[in-house]
Specification:
The complex is a heterodimer of chains A (551) and B (344).
Chain A lengths: L25 E2 L6 E4 L9 E2 L6 E2 L4 E4 L8 E2 L4 E10 L7 E9 L18 H10 L12 H4 L9 E6 L8 H24 L3 E7 L3 H14 L3 E6 L8 H9 L14 E5 H12 L6 E8 L5 E6 L4 H8 L7 E4 L6 E2 L13 E5 L18 H5 L6 H9 L3 H6 L10 H5 L6 H62 L10 H18 L10 H29 L1
Parallel strand pairs in A: 1-14, 9-10, 9-12, 10-11, 13-17
Antiparallel strand pairs in A: 2-8, 3-5, 4-7, 5-6, 7-8, 13-14, 15-16, 15-17
Helix pairs in contact in A: 3-4, 3-6, 9-12, 12-14
Chain B lengths: L14 H11 L1 H11 L2 H23 L4 H6 L2 H12 L6 H17 L11 H12 L7 E2 L11 H10 L8 H4 E2 L2 H10 L4 H5 L12 H17 L6 H20 L7 H5 L4 H8 L10 H21 L6 H18 L13
Antiparallel strand pairs in B: 1-2
Chain lengths: 551, 344
């Protein structure tokens, strides 16, 4: 039996998970339309590769990854792209984003799928395939999975499957494990293969006995050396750093990544999606989502990405006093700006809220420094002090007191007897600090540009002066030469002949007038490009000189 | 604000409930007080409560702050109760009114209101009163069964409000020095501890009656620890240091230094340990800091009791250590998750 480790703090909010685990995962019916945002992942939005009016097939690529941190986006069903424009999306800002609107044709016709045996593929191929299949972290952070599978300099010893699902209400991972454990286990082994990890630990909170049993059974049946580990139910036990601590006793150093200590974490839903992508050739076009809260029939649905949330909530029949919808859990989720926004890869849970379910907190009172927040903080921070600094805008001090180690789990706000929205203060302070750093960076860049410009002008002046001096010298020399023709060596002097020829050639070259730059041949263009590149290199050198001179 | 941002749920607990629980925890001690010294203390508590709430409301109004939520948080009430329990119950009505008003207006609101005061407000009030009005501040009621005359409740009220004693009764007949004070005076008269402790004012371990009041406060304090309102660090470090200091001196010279148990059950030691030093606003926020803070207060309390001019030292020890809190907190920051070194 593996010894578990504790992390500091944590809370036990009421779980509300039983309601949505009574019925199996249902397949949501085909919605009237699908709105597919091109940004459903951390990083750069995918670049649209279809046009309005085009007919697409289920699983067809409609958005191609752009940049390093990015992932592909696919058509969830066959139909016609009716528009590509800005639409409201599930984001706390309420700002619209680029989306494709797809009218399903009802035929649900797949593109050609190509199942692969992952052991026959190279890691590079598999990663590329995951990127083009749009596989991102389905725990809610939606970080592109292919990047997490790049082998780092540090070898990965432990692969952790994050199945803790510590937030109240959410049960999509729980249900997925109950119903599709075998495929999750296959996926886990595939990820282990790609990472060349030594061990696989599957951490599941002990309030999911059925999921634990099903996963254990699947592991035994597959005959794989994976460890299913029952961990105590404690929020935020499913936060990656806390889960790593619980399972391995290791602490991810501040500002570092789990890979730096030889650990990598994947959510179970992601693992399942990665398996479907490789072994069945299915890109990520649907996900399991919990619809719960103030609804008549809380349930998990396998729904197509792009399904309007209102159609999804309608399936579970929201009660009349529903006044808002939360995406994610009640601890870290956010209220949706509108019900018409589509389901995205990050949507693990939709909670219908009512004033009775989520009563508005009483007005905040003064902090009495009771330190309940510090007692529950999983990062061992002193939230009462950070609050003080954030409130008085002493951001430097907040940073010195490790503000950026805050994982925004909300445990402090949850227990605060003065009902102070502590996390909000920390988010505010972090965003202020980031904005200031960006301003500073921009100012630094502007200064560098200015300094380089000064340097360039100075250099041009110097070069001009040097050229002038050289020309005057040459003119003087020529005068001297014409003044003393007698000194011209005899024509039979071979060396002198060569000298004269070289001089003639030089003068000829100098006499050549630069041609018009229009109507250049491709060869000339490439030549110009090459010159440009070498010029850029020179500029870089000059810039680095500027930087060095600063130091 | 947080109605639209996560977390959407919160624990159904509030400052007002915390303060209420602290008030409830004071009741065993108050009950003992009434039992041994008569119901006059209830008059003090009532006076302090009314003054505290009135001053709080007035100050909030002057500061243009919402009045109702702050009055409901029970913090002013708690300050009033703690002050009332620190001064003689038979003190004239104006003494408690002046003291409580000072606590709330100056020590609390001039520093910025709840959560901003550097010093424990009740102890500031106590310090002001004992320095300004030393005579009425040292007229403690004789415990039940020891005095020649005992005043009825009506007579006590008469004295508190009108300063009138029944004919033929002198102040000396109904009051006496506290056990700690008696001890100090008699030690100055070169009496042996043994002889002093044979006086009727002393009970089994400490002062007759007052030891039971101290035990009542300790009982309430244990409830506060069990209910997780306070942590064990401050009471244990405070009482532990007091016990250790008294123990060391007692062992070296038992004739001049009274036993450590006597110290724990005398004066304001237990109410200080569980109710006064643990005031979250003016005590350190780190556990290590709490240990240092309370140990410092225990040390100062003992030094004042054994060598100072005042019979008890809890109030001054609290205030002196309050000054050190920001520094203590700064140097006792716990290690942050994922960091090797302490920050900052």
């Amino acid at each position: 039996m593996r010894t578990l480790h504790q992390f500091h703090g944590g809370i036990h909010p009421p779980s509300h998970k039983a309601q949505s685990t009574r019925a199996p995962i249902a397949t949501a019916p085909m919605p009237s339309k699908l709105v597919i945002p091109f940004r459903q992942h951390a990083g750069e939005a995918a670049k649209p590769v279809v046009q309005a009016g085009e007919r697409v097939l289920k699983g067809q690529l409609i958005g191609k990854p752009e940049g390093f941190v990015s992932s592909a986006v696919h058509a969830p069903t066959s139909g016609t792209i009716v528009s590509i424009d800005m639409q409201p999306v599930a984001h706390p800002s309420g700002l619209p984003d680029m989306c494709a609107t797809l009218l399903p044709d009802g035929r649900d016709e797949w593109v050609a799928r190509q199942p692969l045996e992952y052991r026959d593929c190279s890691a590079v191929e598999l990663r590329q395939l995951l990127r083009m299949s749009g596989i991102v972290g389905l725990g809610g952070a939606v970080f592109p999975s292919d990047i997490k599978l790049r082998l780092s300099r540090q070898k990965i010893r432990t692969l952790i499957l994050n199945a803790a699902e510590c937030e109240p209400y959410i049960t999509c991972d729980d249900m997925l494990m109950r119903e599709r454990a075998a495929e999750i286990v296959q996926g886990a082994e595939m990820l282990r293969f790609m990472l060349e990890a030594k061990e696989v630990l599957i951490g599941i909170e002990d309030n999911k006995s059925e999921a634990i049993a099903m996963m254990q059974q699947a592991v035994t049946a597959a005959g794989l050396p994976l460890e299913v580990i029952r961990i105590p139910t404690l929020y935020p036990g499913g936060s990656a750093k806390q889960l790593i601590r619980t399972l391995t006793g290791l602490e991810v150093p501040s500002g570092k990544l789990p890979t730096d200590i030889g650990v990598q974490c994947f959510n179970v839903g992601t693992t399942y999606a990665a398996w479907r992508a490789i072994a069945h050739g299915e890109p990520l076009i649907s996900r399991v989502v919990t619809v719960t809260g103030n609804v008549r029939r809380p349930q998990n649905y396998e729904a197509l990405l792009g399904t309007p949330i209102e159609e999804l909530v309608a399936l579970s029949e929201a009660l009349p006093d529903t006044d808002r919808h939360i995406m994610g859990g009640p601890m870290m989720g956010f209220a949706l700006p509108s019900l018409s926004v589509p389901l995205v890869k990050a949507s693990n849970c939709i909670i219908a809220g009512s004033p009775a379910l989520f009563p508005p907190p009483p007005p905040p009172l003064s902090c009495i420094r009771c330190t309940r927040c510090a007692q529950v903080c999983p990062a061992d921070l002193q939230p009462q002090d950070l609050y003080w600094f954030a409130q008085s805008r002493e951001f430097g001090k907040a940073q010195a007191f490790s503000l950026f180690d805050c994982i925004e789990c909300g445990a402090c706000s949850y227990v605060c007897p003065s009902h102070i929205p502590l996390v909000q203060y920390f988010r505010f302070a972090k965003s202020e600090i980031r904005a200031r750093e960006q301003d500073k960076l921009a100012a630094d860049k502007a200064r560098q540009r200015h300094e380089f410009r000064e340097f360039r002008i100075e250099q041009e002046k110097r070069e001009k002066a040097e050229k002038l001096a050289a020309r005057e010298k040459a003119a003087l020399a020529a005068k001297a030469a014409s003044a003393a023709p007698a000194t011209v060596p005899a024509p039979d002097d071979a060396h002198a002949k060569i000298q004269q020829a070289v001089e003639r050639a030089r003068l000829q070259a100098a006499a050549v007038v630069p041609k018009n730059t229009e109507n250049l041949t491709p060869a000339q263009q490439t030549e110009i490009a090459e010159i440009e590149i070498s010029r850029a290199r020179l500029r870089e050198q000059a810039k680095s000189e500027v930087e060095h001179s600063k130091e | 604000m947080s109605a639209f941002f996560s977390p959407f749920i919160s624990k159904p607990d509030s400052v007002s409930q915390i303060m209420l629980k602290v008030l409830l925890a004071l009741i065993p001690g108050i009950a003992m007080y009434v039992w041994y010294f008569g119901p006059a203390i209830l008059v003090s508590i009532a006076l302090a409560s009314i003054t505290a709430l009135a001053t709080e409301a007035l100050m909030l109004k002057l500061r243009n702050r919402p009045i109702a939520p702050s009055l409901r948080d029970n913090s002013a009430l708690l300050t009033g109760w703690l002050l009332a329990l620190s001064i003689p119950p038979l003190a004239p009505w104006w003494l408690i009114v002046v003291g409580t008003a000072f606590c709330i207006a100056v020590a609390k609101h001039l520093y910025g209101g709840l959560g901003n005061n550097l010093f424990n407000p009740a102890m500031i009030g106590f310090a002001v009163l004992i320095i300004s009005f030393p005579v009425p501040m040292t007229q403690w009621l004789t415990p039940h069964g020891l005095g020649q005359i005992e005043l009825s409740f009506a007579e006590q009220i008469g004295y508190i409000f009108l300063g009138a004693l029944p004919p033929g009764v002198t102040m000396d007949a109904i009051t006496m020095a506290t056990p700690l004070d008696t001890l100090k005076t008699n030690l100055h008269l070169d009496q042996h501890i043994k002889e002093i402790l044979d006086m009727p004012i002393y009970g089994r371990l400490a002062g007759h009656g007052s030891e039971m009041v101290a035990a009542g406060f300790a009982l309430g304090g244990l409830y506060l620890i069990a209910a997780r309102i306070i942590s064990w660090h401050i009471p244990v470090a405070y009482l532990g240091t007091l016990f250790a200091m008294a123990g060391i001196f007692h062992l070296t010279d038992p004739a001049h230094y009274v036993s450590p148990l006597f110290h724990l059950l005398s004066g304001a030691a237990t109410i200080g340990a569980f109710f006064i030093l643990t005031d979250p606003v003016s005590s350190p926020t780190t556990n290590k800091g709490r240990l240092i803070f309370a140990a410092g207060a225990g040390l100062i309390t003992y030094l004042i009791r054994a060598f100072g001019n005042f019979p008890d030292g809890t109030a001054f020890a609290t205030l002196l250590m309050n000054i050190c809190v920001p520094l203590i907190v700064l140097y006792t920051q716990p290690r942050v998750f994922g960091r090797k070194e302490k920050q900052p």
